[in-house]
């Protein structure tokens, strides 16, 4: 099988079959919704689209297939906004780079005009992905050889800290029952400039050896992936998604009160069989004031594209919001309808900033190509929406 067929597409497409439960809704800084029964993980309401304002139009575009745009603000820099995103730049599978998916870097002065890192060639403002150089690529470690993506970055005390998704190569012999034969985990890395990264000696979260090597993992809690990292209340906090047998992909939570790279430093703080939110793929969590927000792209939205089975499946996934007073107990607000000119909007990343004393909550995301007769799952543009928060 070639790189393209072994790509993350296979990993994402399995998520289209999931469904189940979550919570309820409503906060002062979120859209007001009519009271309703507890969230069942599937039949979630749709937010009024006018609760959100588009941020420009396309922020980064022209690439082959890229997504998960994580934005960080470093006020003392000339380019105070920085973005890490991943996927395939100019060609499927990044044939000239180690592994398959890789992480790239961009910067901006205003959140509207972005330029992408090109190594010694400088920065690209014209959206020419053949010039782009990744800043994180796969290594030779068995759990980090193929997919490097889903970056979540924190700037703290002069150092960048990244949690990211990593996998083994497809059909890794010790993970026979894993999706596409891949072993999934969450890795870490640190940097002083956001470009040159040092990976942690071991994963931040990985399933136990007995699960990695089991003949069957169909009944195992496994596949830790898609991290959302935060430094909060004097410790590291990490939200992520994982596989729950009989339920699907759900959101979990871990903490580390020691060094970021401490072996086994991140410890799961709840019973894995009891997820924080069920049916919650690609979670992003942010704290604004005394409230936590999470955005994900679970299935359950009325399909926008019924032209093909793939269209019905992919377009039933949409951006979705939840809120929490503590990051543990969540209430699901509901879906955000996709852009009118996109088949679907996926892989949200939350960001907040203050402008003239007003707090804004941003959600960066990617738009899916779609179309028929063959539905194109690739992502073609990175965009953002924003909303004032109290």
Task: Please describe the structure with a list of short key phrases separated by commas or semicolons.
390 residues; mainly beta; Tachylectin-2, Chain A; five-stranded antiparallel sheet; 23 strands; 4% helix
Describe the structure in your own words.
The protein has 390 residues and is mostly beta strands. The protein is built from three helices and 23 strands.
Lay out the secondary structure.
Elements: H1 8-13, E1 53-54, E2 60-61, E3 65-73, E4 81-88, E5 102-108, E6 114-117, E7 123-124, E8 148-156, E9 159-167, E10 184-191, E11 198-199, E12 205-206, H2 209-212, E13 222-232, E14 235-244, E15 248-256, E16 267-268, E17 284-288, E18 291-296, H3 309-314, E19 320-324, E20 331-335, E21 344-355, E22 358-370, E23 376-389
Antiparallel strand pairs: 1-23, 2-23, 3-4, 4-5, 5-6, 6-7, 8-9, 9-10, 10-11, 10-12, 13-14, 14-15, 15-16, 17-18, 18-19, 19-20, 21-22, 22-23
